[in-house]
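Morning run. Coffee first, then this:
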Amino acid sequence: MEALDGNAIGGLLIEVFGAEMTTTRGTCVHCGAEMQMAELIVYLPAPGTVARCPTCKDVVMVVVDKRGIKCVDFRGLAMF
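And here it is:
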């Protein structure tokens, strides 16, 4: 599976939040690293979209589509 950067989910983030989010900063709850959404390590061809912290590689975000509804789990990411 090929890793991409967070720019690969720019359209998805607009769909979920209704605004450009790739330059939004967040903090990994696992290691405390601060990064822009564009810096995340993203895996697309899984059953959903998985984004990992570029520092510790822990999962910070998962997005799945369930019957046309985007379900987002951000529990690994603190946004500010």
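The first strand starts at residue 4 and ends at 5. Good start to the day.
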